[in-house]
Design brief:
This protein has four helices and six strands; from the N terminus they run H-H-H-E-E-H-E-E-E-E. It is an alpha+beta fold.
Length: about 170
């Protein structure tokens, strides 16, 4: 086979690949947003019921949590340990609502904006109720599941629904 034949075959293969790529079905961003909202709601339900396995599974293996006043928790196992400690506290409760979901054009990343309620007993047994605002970055993993790759929150007043300004 000549060099010219190999070049023509390579160009043909590239053109076929390009045609196949352009023939790919467009991403249904509304469906992806519903999937992310469902994943976020399932995570809140798991955390609210103190289901450690289901809660930890919502964090990607390479995910990072950024709890207020603490160093980042890098990886699912560090996040799981943090959750375990909270879930073991008598009277502990956490839940949140998803106000906004934005999905990237490629349909493989998204972010959510949430409002949370956290009830934590302090060392004297006094119950401390806090409200928080949060952002989570989600990635669609190879297994097709949406998992949080970054989760950050801080305290704030109980507030209205958080919706970004339209672009």
């Amino acid at each position: 086979m000549t060099k010219r034949s190999l070049v023509l075959m390579a160009l043909g293969a590239a053109m076929i690949g390009a045609c196949n790529a352009s023939d790919a079905e467009p991403v249904d961003l509304a469906a992806a947003a519903r999937e992310v909202a469902a994943a976020d709601s399932a995570w809140s339900a798991a955390a609210s019921s103190r289901n450690l396995d289901a809660s930890a599974d919502m964090i990607a293996g390479d995910g990072i949590m950024f709890p207020p006043g603490m160093p980042p928790l890098i990886g699912r196992s560090a996040a799981r340990e943090y959750m375990r400690q909270g879930f073991e506290l008598p009277g502990f409760h956490i839940s949140w609502v998803t106000d906004t979901v934005v999905v990237a054009a490629a349909g493989d990343f998204a972010y959510t904006i949430n409002r949370a309620l956290q009830i934590v007993p302090d060392s004297t047994g006094r119950i401390d109720t806090t409200y928080a605002k949060a952002v989570a970055v989600w990635r669609k993993d190879a297994d097709g599941r949406w998992r949080a790759v970054a989760d950050i929150w801080n305290d704030g007043p109980q507030g209205e629904r958080i919706v970004p300004v339209a672009r």
